[in-house]
Amino acid sequence: MKTTEAIIFDLGGVILDIDYHKTAEAFVDLGVENFSVLYSQLRQDRLFDDFEKGLIDPQHFRERLRSHAPAYLSDQQIDKAWNAILIGLPKENVDILFRLKEKYRLFLLSNTNEIHERAFRQMIENRYGEYVFDRIFEKMYLSHRIHMRKPEPEIYKLVLRENELDPLKTVFVDDSPQNVEGGMNVGLNSILLEKGKKLQDLESAFIG
Prior knowledge:
Blueprint: E1 6-9, E2 17-18, H1 20-29, H2 35-44, H3 47-52, H4 58-66, H5 75-82, E3 86-88, H6 91-101, E4 105-110, H7 114-128, H8 133-136, E5 139-142, H9 143-146, H10 153-162, E6 170-174, H11 177-185, E7 189-192, H12 199-207
Parallel strand pairs: 1-4, 1-6, 4-5, 6-7
Antiparallel strand pairs: 2-3
């Protein structure tokens, strides 16, 4: 295998700690008792995919969720419950990324949405006094901003093309098997960060 020159990282579950169950619990507390069933149903309706691709705005997204609640929920209540999934950015992950930056070109590729981006940006700035990703990543690709999402082939090709990356010299790290497969399909050296594993478990493979 050719020498690695660049690493493309997923965000949630790889760099940023997340917990889907926290969001499910938060909506149950608001009276949406069947949130997990609703989530599965609305996934089939493509609501979440469309939101992650920026095809609908936050207000449309909130209205769809609000229509399934037994009582009126404010924008603030919905956003707080929706953002409960975001746990935080561990200092050890920041340190690892800065070490990797000394050897590789680093990029971020995330399926996310406007409400979550505002929340995790504020969370990071509150803890570190700055949005440290600006100093870590050469470029960040957020699905709702570029109107495509993983595992669509074009999103990987966009990152490779815009940054003149050789897929054989580029590693892609994600915690979703289907996203990893998507990376493999365009020729990326793709690594699955399995459940229970952390970024530090992969560091030795890059730093040596």
